[in-house]
Amino acid sequence: MSSKTSRHVLSILVEDRFGELARIVGLFSGRGFNIDTIAVNKTLDPRFSRAVLTTRGDDQIIEQIIKQLHKLVRVRKVHHMTDEKHIERELCLVTVRAAAPKAREDLERIINLVGARVIAYSPTAFTVELSAPSKEVENFLELLRPLGIKDLCRSATIALARPGDDKTSNIGENAA
Amino acid sequence: MRGARIVCESLLCEGVDALFGYPGGAILHVYDELHKLDGKLNHVLVRHEQGAIHAAEGYARSTGKVGVCLVTSGPGATNVVTGLQDAMMDSIPLVVLTGQVPTTMIGNDAFQEADVVGITRPCTKYNYLVRDVSELASVIKEAFYLARSGRPGPVLVDLPKDVTAAEHPFSYPESVDLPSYKPTVTGHPKQIKKAIKLIESSERTVLYIGGGVVNANATDEIIELAERLNLPVTPTLMGLGAFPSGHDQSLGMLGMHGTYTANMAMAEAEVIVNIGARFDDRVTGRLDCFAKKAKFIHVDIDPTSINKNVIVDVPIIGDAKTVTRQLLDALPDAPPPERKEWWGILRDWQKRFPLSFKDRTDCIAPQRMMKEIAEITRGEDICATDVGQHQMWAAQYYPVKHGRSWLTSGGLGTMGYGLPAAMGAAVGNPDRRVLCITGDGSFQMCIQELATCVHEGLDVKVLIMNNNFLGMVRQWQELFYSRRYSEVGMKYFPDFVKIAEAYGATGLRAEKPEELHEILEKGLNTPGVVVMDIIVTKEANVYPMIPAGAAHYELVLEPEDDGEEPEPRELA
Fold first, then answer.
1. How far apart are CA A70 and CA A104, in angstroms?
2. Do A73 and B125 touch (CB under 8 A)?
3. Which among B117, B122, B304 is the nearest to A30, CB-wise?
4. Looking at CA atoms only, how far is residue B238 from chain A in angstroms?
5. Structure pTM?
């Protein structure tokens, strides 16, 4: 077993009931585990929600986290996405100063390079949207930093198994 | 049917024969229905909600049934939080029903409102806020099912007053619908095979058993396994009584205050078979030094217990009774191995390093008190303890003869647990005598339950090991803080004999060694509630002891006797 700390993505299928998210979050804080991001939404099956959670820890900690999540009475399944081929996305909204023509040119180049797009603008600033893995969002923000970031909001990571490797399914209970 | 009546009828459907509680505003409808049922549901009126929940724990642990507790909202509910966490850590099945303000007032800071499901989420196995009377019966059904199945634990059901007032037809469901909850009972056959292979390969093997054996009622299977494999057995504090302590193969308890032989056996073992224990820090000592020579087989119903503290070689998830039976069935039909070399070493340790203490003629040694109790009762009685030095001496010297007869707060270490737990056990076992071994500190934390014990006419014998100190803390201050006794001597102690009498119980006191036996004989054989205040050596220490942070083989034994009580120290 490796004692190296690394990043893990967990996909949790949980019965959609009052207070269940609090149990998941409480489990992490109560046992001293860290939640980096968490995203929750419905599945196709109205009885279940899916929470995608990113965390860090060594193998023993991750094993313990997964087991503790399984132990929750209303948690149906926990998938360790990091063990499988999967796709991850985070949504990033960022407003950048770009009043001077040179700054606009720089911004345009960066946007085209990473595949982001402008979704709002004013005479002096542009709001840009990027959907990408967290690491790429980090790089993108590094590129924008010299221009001057005015405002920023990042979503939690969501994840899906790659087609063909989809042992997991996000549809819900019946397909899972 | 009114919601409150649905609650009562559901309890009757579950076969509840005792319910420990305390009324109040938000739970009034349920109390009204109890009144109408005219004693059909046996309610024990405690004197404090903490008493109710510990009583329910004592009842559950000693009978194997689910303990039930009924309290009101706000302070009623917050007063049971200690007991919930206690039951959570020691895997005690409980259903706790709490009143709540009406659903329309939740969140408004109403009188006696508290976010009880929020407060108790981390200290229950599961909890419910019932929002509609239509779900009441099925919630109670699920609560009982969750409490007793898998790894047992406390389940709380919060009952808003308008829900217990609302009308709904009653039908108790026959089954539960919990699609995400499927505890594993049977061990994986492949793991069973691996375990057998590992056990067969080793000479120096130890069977280390915990509270899971008690919960699974697996004593018979454990005895059979130990005997067929000629294994030495060591129970944890929670496992006492799961293997008869008088059995020739028992090494006694292991851990911080366990026997030399039990701890050294773990240190020298090649294979450790853990059934229903969880490698608690009070057992392992310093983790990186724990049982370095051993390979581990770990049987536990809770997958999170496995590889939590100690990485094991053969994990088996399942119920202690079922898995032990599987192991027995998989064993080849052969006479028990001799393990001559191993038993030779163990017997030598037992001879050289038995439990020992300084017996005294000038005052009663606390261990002497326990030995006399052991002799008079022969370990036949149910024994509840509080927390501290007396608890460890009771664990060392009380020869628990039967399963489910040792009640102690192991995981949480809750002072004040003893008396109400003894009370709950006495309610559940009217034919047996129940002891409560306690200290002068712990006893005062739930002393009010003496009234309940007298009221209910219970056969509870309280034995106070009175050293005028918070002894275990004092011991640590002596050993690790250069005898700087900070706030461990209460300058005023009440007269426990008079207190007993004021509550309508019998009070007795022994101060000199020559009085001890007679007082114990008399007190233990006096019917009803008896409080025996036994004045013991002020500064005796519990040995052996693994100091916190030390390796489990670095046991400190009782130092040589210099015959002198240390100089009295001015109390801070």
1. 50
2. yes
3. B122
4. 22
5. 0.94
**How many CB atoms lie under 10 A from the CB of residue A67?**
18
Active-site positions of B read 49, 111-112, 161, 472
Examine the domain organization and report whether B89 and B229 are in the same domain. no
Answer yes or no: do B243 and B339 share one domain. yes
Q: Where are the beta strands (DSSP E) in B318-459?
A: 382-385, 406-407, 434-439
Put simply, the answer to whether B125 touches A30 (Cβ < 8 Å) is no
Supply B41's token pair.
């549901």
Give the residue from chain A lying closest to B131, CA to CA: A18
Same domain, B140 and B277: no
Region for A75 from its dihedrals, namely left if φ exceeds 0, alpha if ψ lies in -120 to 50, beta otherwise = beta
ipTM of the complex: 0.88
Domain encompassing residue B275: 189-352
- Residue A25 makes CB contacts below 8 A (sequence gap 6+) with A35, A38
Q: How far is CA B101 from CA B68, B84, B98, in A?
A: 21, 21, 10
Distance CA B508, CA B510 (A): 7
Please give the CATH topology (third level) of the domain spanning A6-83.
Answer: Alpha-Beta Plaits (3.30.70)
Q: Do A73 and B121 touch (CB under 8 A)?
A: no
- The first and second tokens of residue B315, run together, are 């994990």
- pLDDT over 80 at B561, yes or no: no
Identity of residue B274: N
Number of domains forming the structure of chain B? 3
What is the full DSSP assignment across B245-313? TTSTTB----STT--HHHHHHHHH-SEEEEES----HHHHBSGGGTTTT-EEEEEES-GGGTTSSS--S
- Partners of residue B311 in chain A, C-beta under 8 Å: 1, 60
Look at the block and give the residue holding tokens 């664990």: B395
For residue A29, give every residue at least 6 positions away whose Cβ sits within 8 Å of its Cβ, in sequence order, or none.
Answer: none
Q: Would you list the domain boundaries of chain A?
A: 6-83, 87-158
Same domain, B146 and B207: no
pLDDT tens column, A23-35: 999 999 999 999 9
Alpha-carbon span A135 to B87, nearest angstrom: 44
Residue with tokens 């609302």: B166
Choosing among A71, A72, A75, A173, which should be mutated to test the B contact, i.e. which has the most B CBs within 10 A? A71
- Give the model confidence (pLDDT) of B68-105 as tens digits: 999 999 999 999 999 999 999 999 999 999 999 999 99
CATH number for the domain running over A87-158: 3.30.70.1150
Band of the pLDDT at B358, cuts 50, 70, 90? confident
Nearest CA distance, B143 vs chain A (angstrom): 11
Query: C-alpha B441: how far from its chain's center?
Result: 18
